[in-house]
Amino acid sequence: MKKYFFDVIIHKYADFSGRASRTEFWLFNLFYFLIMLVLSMVFFFLMFAVPSDNTVVGLFLAFLGLVIGLLYLAMLVPCIALSVRRLHDAGLSGWLILVALIFSPILIIFGLLPPTEGPNQYDAQ
User: Fold this and answer.
1) Residue 18: which region, alpha, beta or left (left: phi > 0; alpha: psi -120 to 50)?
2) pLDDT along the chain (125 residues), means of 10
3) How far are the Cα atoms of 55, 77, 99, 123 from residue 72, in angstroms, in the given order?
4) From CA 15, how far away is CA 43, in angstroms rounded?
């Protein structure tokens, strides 16, 4: 799972060409979801469980909130690039990702589409 996540981050950060398998797409998204879930749980636990008059915890919360926000922004490009490559693998145009901006659950359907057999117009995988 980590292999797919770091491969997308390091080698395919803004690569919108080519194809991405269903395995790569789902394991990347699962690992990213788990990272964000753990960070958010720590953030909300500290926010609600620790007294608000503690300055150190307040500074840590501000820092953790900043880290979560920056991580979200940094992951925006590789998430979109991976989704475009997944659409390419299914034989669809990457521009269909714009539909997901309006109706985001369709991204799940795009992720479940079977790949085209053999080479297609996007890559000869």
Assistant:
1) left
2) 85 91 92 93 84 78 90 94 92 89 85 85 67
3) 26, 10, 21, 29
4) 32
